[in-house]
Structure formats: C-alpha cells, structure tokens
UniProtKB/TrEMBL annotation:
Its EC number is 2.3.1.-. Belongs to the 2-oxoacid dehydrogenase family. The lineage of its organism: Bacteria, Bacillati, Actinomycetota, Actinomycetes, Kitasatosporales. This is Dihydrolipoamide acetyltransferase component of pyruvate dehydrogenase complex. The keyword Oxidoreductase does not apply. Keywords: Acyltransferase, Lipoyl, Transferase. Pfam families: 2-oxoacid_dh, Biotin_lipoyl, E3_binding. InterPro entries: 2-oxoA_DH_lipoyl-BS (IPR003016), 2-oxoacid_DH_actylTfrase (IPR001078), 2-oxoacid_DH_E2_comp (IPR050743), Biotin_lipoyl (IPR000089), CAT-like_dom_sf (IPR023213), E3-bd_dom_sf (IPR036625), PSBD (IPR004167), Single_hybrid_motif (IPR011053). It comes from Kitasatospora purpeofusca. PROSITE patterns: BIOTINYL_LIPOYL (PS50968), LIPOYL (PS00189), PSBD (PS51826).
Length: 457
C-alpha cells in the first residue's frame, strides 16, 4: 500500500537557517522521479534547486512563492510505493546544488489530509480520521490511489485553520514581520487561498500606512520641492545577507586604505603574448589573482583574520581567493580554493567557471564561503578607485580600477601608457601600514614589470 513521505527543507550548509521559495518546479498530482528537483529557493548565499529523495505522486506543496521556509520545515509530501520510490538511506549522493538530504517521515497513506498549524507555527500533516477529520478541514480529503496514477490533491499550504476570529497566518516569519513593522494582523486581508495572510500582504499594509501617514513639518529651502512619500523595500535573501555582513564588518573592523597608480602596459602586453598561442585564454583577472597569491606568500599576515573573540590572529595556510562577480540577484563573491597551488591558466579556468555559475544563478552555496582574501575588480564598472568594506572576517582586499590610456612619464619621457589605480584595504589590527604598503608595492611592481613574478614561480 502506498505511503506518504514528507520531505523537509534540507540543511543547505554554512549555517543557513531559512530559504525563500522562488519557483515551484512540480505540481500537486505530478509523478516525480527520485532526486528530481522540486523547488527553486533563494538562500542568503545563492539560488539553488532542491531535489527530492522520493519518487511517486506529489500530494502537497508547502510554501507560496515569496514565502520563507525554515530548515527542517516541510517542503513536499510524496505518495510512494514501499521500497520503490525512495533513495536507500545508505546511498546518499552528493548533489552539487544542495549539501545534504533531508530527514524522512514515513506515514501510512490513509488519506492525503490537510495541513494544520502546530504549536510552533509550522504546518503538520493530518491524515485520515473519518468524518471528524473532514469536518476540521476547509477542503475535501482525497482518497488513497496507486502511486502511478496522479490525481488532483489539495495543496496543503492553502488550507489555513481559522477559528474564533484568529487571523489566518501559518508562517512564523509573516508573524515576525508584522510584529516588527507594527502591523495588526486582524486588520490585514489575506490574498492567499481561503484568506491566508502572506508576507506580501503585510508588506502592502506597511506601504499603505506610509503612503497615508501625514508628513512631518520640515524646513524647506525657498524654491525647493519636498519629495513625496517613498516605499519600503524589505531586505530579503541575498541582499539581506550582504547588508548584515557589511554592517558587521563596518562595526567591527578598523579598516584603512592605501592606493597607488601603476603602469599596466607591460602586463597587458604579456596577456596578449599568452593569448597568441593555442590554449585557454588568460584574463587580466587571472594574472592579478596569480600576483596576489605570490604576494600573500611574502606577506602572510594579510592572509589572516582576527578570531571571533578578538584575542588572536588566525593565519591561514591556504589562499582561498574570493572575487566579486555580478549574479542574477546581485553581487556575490565566489571563492577559488587553494589559489596558491594553481597556475595562471588554471586560475583563469576556475575564475571563468565560477563567474558563469554566478551569472546564471547555478553557483553552489559552498562556493561562496570560506574566502581568506578578496580581489575586487571594480574597473569593470568603469571606475578608477574605491575604498571598499572588507569581506568579514577577512583582513584584506585588493581593488583594481579600470585600465585606461593616460599620459605617463616613462623612462624620463612623456608617453601614453595603460594605467590603473590599485587600492588596498586592510584590517589595521593584523598589520601596520608598512606591511600593507609593502604588499601593495609588490603588486604594483608585478603589474609594471611582470617578469618580477618569475623570481617567485
């Protein structure tokens, strides 16, 4: 007889506790295979597809698009045939876009049932139970069917239980948002099925309150036009994680920045020579990554971080090089592991792979964490300089501006050269200006005279 297996949101690694539903990839009543992706979620690190370890008929989906789901909370339930529609417990595959599989809960398939909120605010499955069970539900209970025959089944997330005038809210995250924004849920009209209050409803209530709030008296200069009321854009997903990390970095790290202009003409000429022969193309970023890896061998204090309690400095043995890349949902920092062991060509291939994965949103969360040093090529945005905020808990970041033709004194004569500005931001707790300046000067020397690298290779 078929049984219902409940698949919960798995631990996606790196301490992530929740994810936002971006897109459902299956529907209720659909027959799915083992390890088929069922939902696309956005974490604080990336957008990932979550595969389900069960094969059979999808009987319920938990969470609407835009709703946040906690790790361990139900995602889907699947009716499977015993011993046939599940992955063996001893054979857990390594899935690139998730870190672990979720725990399973096996229940007899008496009826597909409905979802009711438990004491903690999470939804639980209610199986068969005769007329009493049907009376508690706001939708009919489906009967048991063979796994191979998909049938219409009520979506569990769309059946809130409301009694005594209690607002139809299931998600604890919606309740928290309402509490933080001072929204009275009893006055909010839910847009979800059966009047379920979604996060979007609370956000609309906040925006409406701001729009009708009377403007505070203000002194307006003569001729100036006061701006109209704005709107509140909640910090969610990746943007929220970035805001929290940068805020913490700004509060905790006493950062300083130094910079220098460098003549990159010879570096660009070297790149053209390397790309003139058959083989993978070498990018400017790959050359700079190689220079950084060598420079950190000479100045190991900069490949470090201050311990969480502030009592010591953790010096890292490997260079895990992060670099800024533009993704579908904002700027992310993929990490090249053990960059000090890679050749320039290998660095170029790995940088290219991670950049493409970030651009398409297919990058794994584990590839966005664990960096020890960051290379920030903000020159791609057409700017010359920057004083960035460090990527906490890292102690240093090299910034590279655009490479542009400028008048330059070369060998005692004025000439047009390809010049870039290099900036170096560092945690003043791990080193003094002499160390930081020494590293930056070494990088500038390698940019101006790439042959300097041969002494360290």
């Amino acid at each position: 007889m078929p049984v219902v297996r409940e698949f919960t949101l798995p631990d996606l690694g790196e301490g992530l506790t929740e994810a936002e539903v971006v897109r459902w990839l299956v529907e209720v009543g659909e027959v799915i295979a083992i390890d088929q992706p069922v939902v696309e979620v956005e974490t604080a690190k990336a957008v990932v597809e979550v595969p389900c370890p069960y094969g059979g008929v999808v009987t319920a989906l938990f969470g609407a698009v835009g709703e946040e789901v906690l790790v361990g909370a139900p995602l889907v339930t699947v009716a499977v045939s015993p011993g046939e529609g599940e992955r063996p417990l001893a054979a857990v595959p390594v899935v690139e876009r998730t870190v672990e599989r979720a725990a399973e809960v096996e229940r007899p398939l008496v009826g597909y049932g409905v979802a009711e909120p438990d004491r903690g605010g999470r939804r639980r499955r209610v199986g068969g139970g005769g007329a009493a069970a049907v009376a508690r539900a706001s939708a009919p209970v489906a009967v048991a069917v063979p796994v191979a025959a998909p049938v219409p089944v009520p979506v569990a997330a769309a059946v809130p239980v409301v009694a005594g005038g209690v607002p139809a809210v299931i998600s604890p995250l919606v309740r928290r948002l309402a509490r933080e924004q001072g929204v009275e849920l009893a006055a909010v009209a839910g847009s979800g099925p059966d009047g379920l209050i979604m996060r979007a409803d609370v956000e609309r209530a906040v925006a409406a309150r701001i729009a009708v709030a009377p403007a505070a008296p203000a002194v307006v200069p003569v001729g100036a036009v006061p701006s109209g009321a704005g709107s509140v854009v909640p910090l969610r997903g990746l943007r929220k994680a970035v805001a929290e990390k940068l805020g913490r970095s700004h509060r905790e790290i006493p950062a300083a920045t130094c910079w220098v202009d460098a003549d990159a003409t010879e570096l660009m000429a070297l790149r053209r020579q390397l790309n003139a022969v058959p083989g993978p193309k070498v990018s400017v970023l790959a050359l700079l990554a190689r220079i950084c890896a060598v420079g950190l061998e000479r100045f190991p204090d900069l490949n470090s971080s201050v311990t969480a309690d502030g009592s010591g400095i953790l010096r890292h043995s490997a260079v895990h090089l992060g670099f800024a890349a533009q993704g579908e949902r904002g700027l992310v920092v993929p990490v090249v592991r053990d960059a000090q062991r890679l050749t320039t060509e290998q660095l170029g291939e790995e940088l290219g792979r991670l950049t493409e994965a970030a651009r398409t949103g297919a990058i794994a969360p584990a590839e966005l964490t664990g960096g020890t040093f960051t290379l920030n090529n903000y020159g791609v945005f057409g700017v010359d300089g920057s004083t960035p905020i460090l990527n906490h808990p890292e102690a240093a970041m090299l910034g590279v501006g655009r490479i542009v033709a400028k008048p330059w004194v070369h060998q005692g004569e004025l000439a047009v050269r390809e010049v870039t500005q290099l900036s170096f931001t560092f945690d003043h707790r791990v080193c003094d200006g002499g160390t930081a300046g020494g590293f930056l000067r070494f990088v500038a020397d390698c940019v101006e005279q790439p042959g300097v690298l041969l002494r360290r290779l």
